[in-house]
């Protein structure tokens, strides 16, 4: 992969309309990737990306990141399938647990065992996106569901590969100096 294909821009805007305009301007300028963060207060990233997908042709679109504690995996799977249908081969989903302050103080949701929670969440999401169904009974979720398959394996299964990456732009300089790839926990 060339460096130019791996670069993108993260867009913070106060309204959905200004986010859409920024994505369109980025596409016109040749930016290959636009990331829209899920913020506790502000435009919904996935809704905005669905509109952007319908109003752009080439730019790759992604969430950076969608907070798992505030969105059920079944809901997220439905939203992902919608955006992916509108932007075939152009959508990237970034998910994460966020931070205790955001989850507990702003949303009022307990922030407990985040790595275990994320593993369970990813397992449910992966099953829904790869097979269209899930039968999961765990510590955090009990989910029995079948989705109509928009993207059917194995033809599109490579689109739903799980990649473990870290967005270092959210770390303070002193944290980046201490961070190493070996610090990550496997999902």
UniProtKB/TrEMBL annotation:
Gene3D superfamilies, alphabetized: Luciferase-like domain
Record keyword Oxidoreductase present: yes
Keywords: Oxidoreductase
Domain Luciferase-like: 17-156
Listed GO MF terms: oxidoreductase activity, acting on paired donors, with incorporation or reduction of molecular oxygen
Any Pfam family: Bac_luciferase
Record SUPFAM superfamilies: Bacterial luciferase-like
Entry superkingdom: Bacteria
Family annotation (PANTHER family): 5,10-METHYLENETETRAHYDROMETHANOPTERIN REDUCTASE (PTHR43244:SF1), PTHR43244
Name listed for the protein in its UniProt record: Luciferase-like domain-containing protein
Organism (species): Dictyobacter kobayashii
């Amino acid at each position: 992969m060339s460096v130019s294909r791996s670069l993108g821009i993260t867009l913070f805007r106060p309204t959905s309309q200004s986010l859409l305009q920024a994505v369109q301007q980025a596409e016109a300028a040749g930016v290959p990737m636009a990331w829209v963060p899920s913020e506790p207060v502000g435009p919904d990233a996935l809704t905005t990306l669905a509109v952007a997908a319908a109003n752009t042709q080439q730019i790759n679109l992604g969430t950076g990141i969608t907070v798992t504690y505030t969105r059920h995996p079944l809901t997220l799977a439905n939203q992902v399938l919608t955006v992916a249908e509108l932007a075939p081969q152009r959508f990237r989903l970034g998910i994460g647990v966020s931070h205790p302050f955001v989850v507990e103080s702003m949303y009022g949701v307990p922030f407990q065992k985040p790595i275990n929670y994320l593993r369970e969440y990813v397992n449910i999401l992966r099953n829904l996106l790869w097979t269209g169904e899930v039968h999961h009974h765990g510590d955090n979720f009990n989910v029995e569901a079948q989705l109509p398959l928009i993207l059917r394996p194995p033809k599109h299964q490579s689109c739903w590969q799980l990649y473990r990456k870290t967005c270092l732009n959210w770390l303070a300089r002193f944290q980046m100096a201490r961070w190493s790839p070996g610090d990550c926990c496997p999902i």
